Amino acid sequence: MHPNLLFFFLTCLTQAQAELSGLLSALHYFGLVSNVTFQSLGISRGQCHYSFNTYGLLEERRICAPDDEHILHLTQLPPIRKPPILMKCLQPETPENGTGKEPGLLMMGSSKEIINLLKPVGNATKRHEPGSCVVVHFCTVSSLECARVAPIMNLLPHLFPTLPIAYIDAYEFSRFNAEFGIVSLPTLMIFHQGRPLIKYDPSWADSEKRSFGRFIMRHTNVKTVDPQSISPHIINRTRSEPLPNVPVVHTDYYLGLAWVFILACLANYLRQTVFWKQLVEMVQRNWRESEETQMEMVD
């Protein structure tokens, strides 16, 4: 009789210890317990004590928590850095005497110009085959962020004189936004043989000429020229042209129509509410009472 009671007592004690460890694990996970740790109790969350009792009472599931700092390195996979998408670009030869045309940002004014710009050269169908590469800057002059990166984009064709760099107004040519997957402005996209392969959405901290240059050199075989070789006159001129560094204010009629539609829907919704009906009935009742009062005063 005594051995059975002793076994029953040990079983209850083991189960209570397992429940206590599970409760402390939950409290520690939610930050409710900070001064009490499993190391102070002699229990390690980083390892499981496998035995018959722990297997039968499922104690190892309560002790080995998935957020344990001792086994956290076993549950997290190291980040895998994907190799860059590299494409080969055809580059025209630069004249040695410097009599060639001065590079500059190509301003697209019509859909025909955009199609001619992205027209493929040769029969290359894969990105590792030499083909025509075009860097397109999707933006609009009324955007504050686009105005902030405008000096950088104006200078970029001088840093890559053998690479065509064009500007497309995303507001004027909005149909190209859905076709090329433009979801934010500004967006820099590289085309190879007329196909969009990679795009770059710079953040507020990365909007600098070095980040744009690194993006182009990372995904193409085109290298930048020495920035010291660019004339100071060109650097001063690219600060405000061809893209302005100050946002241009335009009247957005579509936005006005959208607000009119929203207000009309709101008015129609309020017209069907009980509060609006009570308000109309109160006004009508007061109007009738005022008319009756005036009739009585006339009589």
From TrEMBL:
<feature type="signal peptide">
    <location>
        <begin position="1"/>
        <end position="18"/>
    </location>
</feature>
<keyword id="KW-0732">Signal</keyword>
<keyword id="KW-0812">Transmembrane</keyword>
<feature type="transmembrane region" description="Helical">
    <location>
        <begin position="253"/>
        <end position="270"/>
    </location>
</feature>
<dbReference type="InterPro" id="IPR042418">
    <property type="entry name" value="TXNDC15"/>
</dbReference>
<keyword id="KW-1133">Transmembrane helix</keyword>
<protein>
    <recommendedName>
        <fullName>Thioredoxin domain-containing protein</fullName>
    </recommendedName>
</protein>
<keyword id="KW-0472">Membrane</keyword>
<dbReference type="GO" id="GO:0060271">
    <property type="term" value="P:cilium assembly"/>
</dbReference>
<dbReference type="InterPro" id="IPR036249">
    <property type="entry name" value="Thioredoxin-like_sf"/>
</dbReference>
<dbReference type="GO" id="GO:0005929">
    <property type="term" value="C:cilium"/>
</dbReference>
